[in-house]
Amino acid sequence: MPGGRVAEREVVEHFGAVAVVARDARGRIAMVRQYRHPIGRRLLELPAGLLDAGPGETPLAAAQRELAEEVDLAAEHWQVLVDLDLSPGFTDEALRLYLAQDLRGLEASERHDEEADMSVEWVALEDAVSRTLSGEIVNATSVAGILALAAADARATSLRAVTAPWTDEPTALRERRDRR
């Protein structure tokens, strides 16, 4: 610590996660309405999931898996939209948000548990921004993805390649699991 003091900290280790802003040719984004028990209601969210499938699954592969599982889509064009450290005061949980475009439909996935009751909604980006600013869309990942895409579009910003380094990608929990 500053001044040479030693401080003890508890850190919650996390697998890490990915999320996807899947934009169709009409400029709409695929979102899921999903019940979230800790909040006690359904939230409108981007497709997302954990990096927990086991050794060898890359963040991009996890994003592709989640897009297929949650909204029955695949994409030809992928870019990194933004990286997030979700609550660095107590956890190493980090998330990589991708932009997926040139979409095509897949056969419906079999959904289980909380995903069994999800519904897919297509939302125009401008509407998603309005819903975010009005407080209707509150999931932090979704808020970040929607506003990042709107900002990137407004500035005609070039996004990063999927091979771009992810500086804060959490690895400790996955490495410990994979050693077992």
Automatic annotation (TrEMBL):
<protein>
    <submittedName>
        <fullName>NUDIX hydrolase</fullName>
    </submittedName>
</protein>
<dbReference type="InterPro" id="IPR015797">
    <property type="entry name" value="NUDIX_hydrolase-like_dom_sf"/>
</dbReference>
<dbReference type="Pfam" id="PF00293">
    <property type="entry name" value="NUDIX"/>
</dbReference>
<dbReference type="GO" id="GO:0016787">
    <property type="term" value="F:hydrolase activity"/>
</dbReference>
<dbReference type="InterPro" id="IPR000086">
    <property type="entry name" value="NUDIX_hydrolase_dom"/>
</dbReference>
<feature type="domain" description="Nudix hydrolase">
    <location>
        <begin position="12"/>
        <end position="145"/>
    </location>
</feature>
<keyword id="KW-0378">Hydrolase</keyword>
